[in-house]
Amino acid sequence: MAHTYVKIPEIYKKMKAAEAEKRVLFISAPVGSGKSAAIEYYLRRQDHLFLTGIDGRLNEMPEGNEINQPFIVIDDVSWIVDPDSENYILDLIDICDRKGKTMILAGRSRLPSWLQPACIEYGFILADERDLLFGEKQIKKIFQIHGIDLNESDVFEIMNETKGYPVSVTMLTYHMQDGKDYSVDIYKAAQLDMYRYFFRTFYAQWDNELKEVLLAVSVFPSFTVQLAEMVTGNVNIRRVIERAFSVGSFLFCGADDSYVMRPLLRGFLEWRCGIEYSKEWMNEIYGRAALYYEIRNDIENALYYYELADDRERIFQFLIKNAEKHTGTGHFFETRRYYLSLPKEMIVKSPLLMCGMSMLHSLLMQTEESEYWYDQLVQYEKRQEVGKRSRKEATMRRAYLDIALPHRGITNIIKTLKNTAIMVTNKEIQMPEFSVTSNLPSIMNGGLDFCEWSKNDRNLAILMKKPVELLLGKHSPGLVNIALAESFFEKSFEGQNDPDDYKIMTLLNSGYTMADMKGKIEMCFVAIGVMVKLHISHNQPQVAKTLLMEFREKAIAENALRLLPNIDAMRVWLKLLAGNMDIDKELSVENWLADDAPNENREFYILERYRYMVKIRVYIVMGQYEDAARLIERVLVYFEKYNRTFFWIQAHLLKAILQYRLGKNEWQVNLQKAVSKAQEYKFTQIIAAEGAAVKPLLLQAQSLEWDDAYCAKVLNEVDREAQFYPDYLKERCLVEEPLTKMENTILHLLCKGNKSTDICDLYHISYNTLKYHNKNIYRKLGVKNRAEAVQMAGELGIYRA
Predict the structure, then answer these.
(1) Of 404, 399, 397, nearest in space to 327 by CA
(2) CATH of 9-132, one of 2.40.50.140, 3.40.50.1820, 3.30.470.30, 3.40.50.300
(3) 640 pLDDT band (50/70/90 cuts)?
(4) What's the topology of domain 741-796?
């Protein structure tokens, strides 16, 4: 064996430490990880006693004080259930500690509960499968032992597919010994051999209950106890999970009380499902999972599993149910594939579906298709008898679209609102819920763009108060006060009758209270959003941050999770104001960009408009000017087509800032467009908010056409904002190839002086994996070692001490 074994540095170091310090080493790793081979290799020239608990008890128990060997190895500790064997091992640990002997315990599962007190008392050294994984160097060497020379590309592919799992790599060597080149087919053949190996070595020993449960949950990327109970009908899931932990390292704990199956085991069990169970059984499992998600109102997952279960009727009913919701709570975009696959003859029979299709196409910026389905709904309405339920349903859905279709904007909306309010008053129809804010922190720039109303905000607040309250129901409490406050804040330039900030804050607080008591949390978010901007304008960023974070906690407590993406985008904006890009325990701008920001290159969705605007700013700070320019052009197409005035102004300001930094003369044209439009509505804050980023443009712009008084007001507010937040949108000096999230995290830990072993323990990675990340970090930074990387991180502004 010794001449074919490839030494793994991580496990070798831990065994060396256990020998030097005379401590117990506990190795926990699943079958095929190579723990027995590693122990045998290390002790190949050492005298040692070997015991095993494979049968549930130790095969022998020699008198502890009479054992002369310096090393004692006990394998299959996880299988031991015999109390005498357990007590014997505990006594032996004490003897080894007193006599300076080294004990190595190995098992397929985590540390048994009966060993945990001893682990704490004697300070076990712990190792797991990560310490036994092959790196690229070991993979290349083991193939060389079998007479196979791999090129670097094959080594990388094999490492990527096998994750360095020893038995998987070994199986591959058997299939390539006859001179075959590595390929996907070779890997699949080796994988089947590995699955058969698993079947013989552990699966055949499982009891039926454990098999049934793990087979059922193997079809899910992760599962909770409740999901497992639903799909299996077994009420003892916690007991089964505990047994799974006790017999092998098959599961690990995921997020939100979920469990994740190790990929190799999951692949094996899915293979066994295909052998042991029928398609009908799989459909039953998927159907139960879909019901589980339906109960929890998780529409996307419910539809996904109903589709896997081939339950077309349930999918249809689900789409009907979703179409009843407004765009703030409905999952139109996420479920578009299902809607768009519905046959026309099915849609035209349902006013609800025609309404949903019209709204969906409008959200997809397919206005012609949206109007087509609107016309179909109108024709359906005309065909129904007056007074019939079907007629009322069609009238209600048509009236809803008249108000809510995004691409129509607010043209003739006052007349439409009044007429619809009359129908509601006369009890001709009962209106569904509207999305006033689309989950954005704004009414003026929420579901529709109401900038035009801002020109006559006081009068409209009086004129439209009753119709709005009548139509919006629970969305109306607090709306008028909050809308007025937002309009006053954004303008802050109307002469002597200007409302002061105290009055604005009074309106916001009263509106928030009304919405919180009788209305919707979405309206509370608008009030908080305007409050945050008001505090920012007074150089109170910490107050703004605290206010936003407390509201975030409220949203989570009230299960308003749909608000979190825009709340977090606003948190990113606060960080940009402060010029704070560092990773912290709360939120990292770079991590937000990599993991949470919407991907406009994969799909463009108009309801993500707020986050797109924040993303443009992040792109500018990161020096990703091409990405920023591309996204600006995309959003401008939408803003112009859908008359989104507020965002149109912001986009042209950001476009001017970007062009200015790129040295393009067109920046003055776009600045003029933004300034002219903002002046038309008397908006000052929209320009002032860009502070330090827009100030040099305003100072260098030649012959801007704007009113002198308005100009003075804007320049004063911009200058104040620039003084408060001088680092806003300040360009960072960046590396050409961005660091990944993990590389960024590791670099910050290196800069803070963390040891390599601490980083490995913190993120549960092997030393080889850490070396791999370090190598990439050094290459991207253009340095040779850790000290140079730390220095470069400081110079580039990636890390601040």
Answers:
(1) 404
(2) 3.40.50.300
(3) very high
(4) Arc Repressor Mutant, subunit A (1.10.10)
